[in-house]
């Protein structure tokens, strides 16, 4: 992917994070509110994006690694995942982190690339494990059928 495509993917991830609350209806805060009938008629119907889930896993895994700690802070600040509403200026973000604008840019770009690469690896590993489990299940099913036949 090009740098612009990764940036767009990261912005999509940030939007996905903000809309995940649409998967389930929010729980009422107190016992009296729970006794009242629901005011919303439609259940939540957010889209599920498996690839973005792998990307999310990769982001959180990389953020836990000391090597990517500074890049993760820049990434989270820039894409608005840690409370920033996206309106904060780049200069203010960089100043808040104690780095220059160029360093901030380099950090979030580097982290986005690393997270995307890791998400592809996570997806491949998940698909490989799933296919192995499916083959094992098919093998067990055939063996059980042979045992029943004899």
Helix count, per DSSP?
Answer: 6
Helix/sheet category: mainly alpha
Backbone CA Rg: 22 Å
Order of helices and strands: HHHHHH
Number of domains: 1
Overall pLDDT level: 80
Largest sheet features = none
* Shape label: flat
Spans of 5+ residues with little confidence (pLDDT < 50)? none
What does this structure look like?
- The longest helix has 49 residues, at 101-149.
- The radius of gyration is 22 Å and the shape is flat.
- It has one domain.
- The protein has helices at 3-19, 31-35, 50-63, 69-79, 90-97, 101-149.
- The mean pLDDT is 80.
- 69% of the residues lie in helices and 0% in strands.
- 17% of the residues are buried.
- The protein has six helices and no strands.
- The protein is mainly α and 150 residues long.
Layout of strands and helices, then pairs:
Layout lengths: L2 H17 L11 H5 L14 H14 L5 H11 L10 H8 L3 H49 L1
Summary tags:
mainly alpha, 150 residues, 0% strand
Question: Nutshell version of this structure?
Answer:
The protein has 150 residues and is an all-alpha fold. It contains 6 helices and no strands. The protein has one domain (3-149).
């Amino acid at each position: 992917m090009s740098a612009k495509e990764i940036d767009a993917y990261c912005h999509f991830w940030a939007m996905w994070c903000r809309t995940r609350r649409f998967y389930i209806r929010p729980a009422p805060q107190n016992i009296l509110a729970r006794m009242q009938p629901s005011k919303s008629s439609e259940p939540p119907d957010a889209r599920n994006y498996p690839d973005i889930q792998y990307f999310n896993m990769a982001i959180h895994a990389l953020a836990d690694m000391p090597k990517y700690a500074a890049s993760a802070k820049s990434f989270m600040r820039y894409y608005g995942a840690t409370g920033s509403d996206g309106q904060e200026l780049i200069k203010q973000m960089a100043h808040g982190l104690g780095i220059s604008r160029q360093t901030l840019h380099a950090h979030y770009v580097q982290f986005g690339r690393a997270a995307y690469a890791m998400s592809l690896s996570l997806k491949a590993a998940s698909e490989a494990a799933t296919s192995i489990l499916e083959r094992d299940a098919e093998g067990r099913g055939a063996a059980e059928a042979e045992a029943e036949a004899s």
